[in-house]
Amino acid sequence: MTTTNSPKRSVLKRGALMAGAAVVGIGLAAGLTDVTLLASRSAVAQPIQLSGVQNQVPSFADVVDNVKPAVVSVRVKSRVAAANDDGDASSGVEGLPPGHPLERFFRRFGEEGQAQGQQGQQRQQQPRIQLAQGSGFFISQDGYVVTNNHVVKDAIEVQLVTDDGKTLAAKVIGTDPRTDLALLKVTEPGSFPFVQLSQAKPRIGDWVLAVGNPFGLGGTVTAGIVSAQGRDIGSGPYDDFLQIDAAVNRGNSGGPTFNQQGQVIGVNTAIYSPSGGNVGIAFAIPAATVSNVIDQLKKDGSVARGFIGVQIQPVTSEVADAIGLKDAHGALVASAEANGPASKAGIKRGDTILAVNGEKITDARDLSRKIAGFAPGTKTNLTVWRSGKEQVISFEVGKQPA
């Protein structure tokens, strides 16, 4: 029910006007002059001035001006298995969901150049060209670019489109599927604007900016806050994502999330969405992980991770009570791989690993991440709970199998 159609509300409005008239009448009877009355009316008619409001609302314009030139759109051609004519596979163009009317057009576009007389079944058996789009950002003046592994997976051609519209050819230096990161390099010489990875861990509630190429639209900026840290979304054993509520959509993959100082705090890699579009839950790879992985990709083209060689399981409150721990934490060793690093160090079934180099282990996933962060061959100390007491075991980190 609207205000204009409500008899009751209309009566209330009229009552208020009548009450105001009565007050004015009393004022005149008390000796107010017409000049005073006019001045009063004039004061009421003045617009409300909200002093200082503009200073209270944050503006990200200066940050955007500084960082946006370093963000690029990533265009990729890759060769994939052919799809059938019923459209049961995605078009491969980010921003175009399965079942979209243009899906078949893009699939056919990839089949151009094939013989017109070819049978449909034969076309299906041949690889087709898939077009994909994502985002990335320069991390060095000489043209190194960070993006997601899934953006450039199986790429046969990669192009970068800069903020000013220039198209640059690039090559893949290295990828790390386990963290979904990739390093690219512009093939032509030049000096490029770049941004830095943040050394500080963001706080929950900090303002952030996501910049990228959603739906192929080009440089787009959205704002939000850090919603959570340490998210495990089931994508791999090293999940440690930042959760942000800045709008992130298809095509933002590989793009940066910035803090208010213009430093990259994360690389956007996934969203949680029943519909496929933004619902305010996005996940970014933390800058600390990015820095570690990218340094190795730049040096070796691949990532070598530490390996412990055990099967581990969580320490529940029931398990903690059974083995005499005061609180449930650490990783319970279900088995140690024969001739593996842990077995060689003397770790065995039933041990509970509580700390690495004195740093407390919260759970089994935390142990996997910490060990993976060490270079193979690193000497460490593991604090182990065995037979109702703690003991420290010297341990040499192994190399994770490919």
From TrEMBL:
<keyword id="KW-0732">Signal</keyword>
<keyword id="KW-0378">Hydrolase</keyword>
<dbReference type="InterPro" id="IPR051201">
    <property type="entry name" value="Chloro_Bact_Ser_Proteases"/>
</dbReference>
<keyword id="KW-0677">Repeat</keyword>
<dbReference type="InterPro" id="IPR001940">
    <property type="entry name" value="Peptidase_S1C"/>
</dbReference>
<comment type="similarity">
    <text>Belongs to the peptidase S1C family.</text>
</comment>
<dbReference type="GO" id="GO:0042597">
    <property type="term" value="C:periplasmic space"/>
</dbReference>
<dbReference type="InterPro" id="IPR009003">
    <property type="entry name" value="Peptidase_S1_PA"/>
</dbReference>
<keyword id="KW-0645">Protease</keyword>
<feature type="domain" description="PDZ">
    <location>
        <begin position="293"/>
        <end position="363"/>
    </location>
</feature>
<dbReference type="Pfam" id="PF13180">
    <property type="entry name" value="PDZ_2"/>
</dbReference>
<keyword id="KW-0574">Periplasm</keyword>
<protein>
    <recommendedName>
        <fullName>Probable periplasmic serine endoprotease DegP-like</fullName>
        <ecNumber>3.4.21.107</ecNumber>
    </recommendedName>
</protein>
<dbReference type="GO" id="GO:0006508">
    <property type="term" value="P:proteolysis"/>
</dbReference>
<keyword id="KW-0346">Stress response</keyword>
<dbReference type="InterPro" id="IPR036034">
    <property type="entry name" value="PDZ_sf"/>
</dbReference>
<dbReference type="InterPro" id="IPR001478">
    <property type="entry name" value="PDZ"/>
</dbReference>
<keyword id="KW-0720">Serine protease</keyword>
<dbReference type="Pfam" id="PF13365">
    <property type="entry name" value="Trypsin_2"/>
</dbReference>
<dbReference type="GO" id="GO:0004252">
    <property type="term" value="F:serine-type endopeptidase activity"/>
</dbReference>
